[in-house]
Design goal:
Elements lengths: L12 H9 L4 E15 L13 E15 L2 E14 L5 E16 L3 H30 L12 H18 L5
Antiparallel strand pairs: 1-4, 2-3, 3-4
Helix pairs in contact: 2-3
Main location: cytoplasm
GO molecular function, one term: unfolded protein binding
Family: Belongs to the SecB family.
């Protein structure tokens, strides 16, 4: 009794072949690393002689780069500049580029863009947050407890701005 068990039960070979032609979705985080790190305290040691009254300025950016056919590097750049709220003197400047190497296959277009600009940064941000806290603490200051970031909302705002700019720049000839 030699039957081919690989055939679909309904005998529809075309449906089975169609599924095999569809690219398999692949996603894996290969490595998390610090790409760049910097800490400056230009007002030290004077800054430690007065009560710490911080005014925090935070800048957050993400970018990605294709490394090979299915590998992408995603980077979150966090810059925190903390000044004394009364004098305006910079207490410290901390900057980190937290990166991750991701293997992504089977995604294209907007799905790939969404993954690189929202999903991957969501995975990396806790590492960047911890690194900034540690860096600031080693600089002699209390940890800078960064609030969670909604990269999904950031991505949605970016897409909305791009759509609005696209409509505003259309010209008729």
């Amino acid at each position: 009794m030699a039957e081919d068990n690989n055939q679909p039960e309904d005998g529809n070979q075309q449906a089975a072949g169609g599924q095999q032609d569809k690219p398999q979705l692949q996603f894996s985080l290969q490595r998390i690393y610090v790409k760049d790190i910097s800490f400056e305290s230009p007002s030290a040691p004077e800054v430690f002689k007065q009560p710490f009254k911080p005014k925090v300025g935070l800048d957050l950016n993400t970018f990605s780069e294709k490394v090979s056919d299915d590998q992408y590097e995603v980077v979150i750049k966090v810059t925190a500049q903390v000044s004394h709220s009364e004098s305006g003197n910079t207490s410290f400047l901390a900057e980190i580029q937290q990166a991750g190497l991701f293997r992504i296959g089977g995604l294209e277009g907007e799905q790939l863009e969404h993954t690189l600009e929202a999903f991957c940064p969501n995975l990396l941000f806790p590492y960047a947050r911890e690194c900034i806290d540690n860096l600031v603490n080693r600089g002699g200051f209390p940890p800078l407890m960064l609030a969670p970031v909604n990269f999904e909302a950031m991505y949605a705002r970016k897409k909305k701005r791009a759509a609005e700019q696209g409509q505003g720049t259309e010209t008729t000839q």
